[in-house]
Amino acid sequence: MLGAFVQKNGSLAKGMSSQQQQGGGTSKQAIRIWTQEKDKALVESMLELRLGGTFNADNGLKTGSLEDLERKMESKWPGCGLKAIPHIQSRYKTLKATWKDVHDMAYGNNTSGFGWDPDRCMLTAEKDVWDSYIRSYKKCAPSRTKQFPLFDQLIELFHKDRANGKDAQSPADVVEELSKESET
């Protein structure tokens, strides 16, 4: 898992929390470090913009959302130098992908045995459950020992983006419903 995961002692996992800034042509790549505090500020900014109606994480970003986030981050972290593209856009994608993986393990249909510990901000499961899951999803191995302190805030942003089976219909249900409608 990437980015917002933190080692148990609270330090950032080496090499796991940086974003690379792509330079043009033969320029050197600079490392963009995303600290827990900057991640928190970014998520708070996304929530503020969502409440104000200028940010919609469920259906992709609205036009201008990244620029709004750039301005918010600059006001919270003056001189941070974060640009809408590539920094904020890349971090948004990383946070969303990480959140999806954690959410699917904690609440997904095919991940029996996993739970979420809100006090430790970590996934929980027995060793055999982890071992079995990681055999199929190797990229999720770091989530076994990493905290994800922004999980609950990201639920507020991305919850509509995950199917939960509620109100799902089978093809037979649809046919039956159409038949009833045509009779009336």
Automatic annotation (TrEMBL):
Q: What is the lineage of its organism?
A: Eukaryota, Viridiplantae, Streptophyta, Embryophyta, Tracheophyta
Please report the organism this UniProt entry assigns to the protein.
Answer: Senna tora
Span-the-membrane segments of this chain are none
Q: Which InterPro entries match?
A: Myb/SANT-like_dom
Q: For the Myb/SANT-like domain, which residue ranges apply?
A: 34-133
Q: What is this protein called?
A: Myb/SANT-like domain containing protein
Q: Where is this region: Disordered?
A: 8-29, 162-184
The cross-references to Pfam families, in alphabetical order and at most eight, read: Myb_DNA-bind_3
